[in-house]
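#lab-general

N.A. 3:47 PM
ok so I finally got the sequence cleaned up, no stray characters, all 214 residues accounted for. can someone with queue access submit it? mine expired

B.Y. 3:52 PM
send it over

N.A. 3:53 PM
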Amino acid sequence: MAVTLSDYDLPDAFLFSKGTTGILVWQPQETIIVLGQSNTIETSIHKEEVEADDIRVTKRPSGGETVILTPSTIAFTVARQFPVMIQFREFFGMVNSVVIEGLDEMGVAGLGSKGISDITIGNRKILGSSMRKVGNKLVYHAVLNLAENPSMFSKYLCHPRREPDYRAGRNHDEFVTSIANEGYGFTPGEVMAMLNRRLSGLMITQQADGHTAG
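B.Y. 4:20 PM
back already:
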């Protein structure tokens, strides 16, 4: 059966609708390949492997490169309105900083922010994110690698056409790590609870600015 592109109907799809704001933290229940807006099946994935394992492929309405969601990852989305629009980079920084603070409080060492919007442990990536502007709203969404083996990414994904300087040509196995691989045994529930608590603070700020979180 040939690899085809399915509609983007993941749990956070509603947050891309005009006027809808809020946060969603969720654990994928299946393995899904998610292309970035400018990615294609032909250039971004190893079609033979994806077809053989019957992996679903969809395309999100935001930029960035192709990612894989699995039950060993945590996905989350923040949709916030701005009375005066800010730059993508600023909102990336706002969200990533509260995630880093939360993981740091849980005891994760060596955290950093590299590239445009990656979160790292040492020099290896644990979180990638992308963004879309919808009217006066920015929608940030990301995937955090809680415990997925980086070899899965190498199996299904081609090397990206664009990469941050700190990647330095490394393949997926060398570039990506997971929280579990770094020695931390958090459950999905523990990490999701932290994210919900931390990200809710961003929406409280929005409400104080005169907007309602949906």
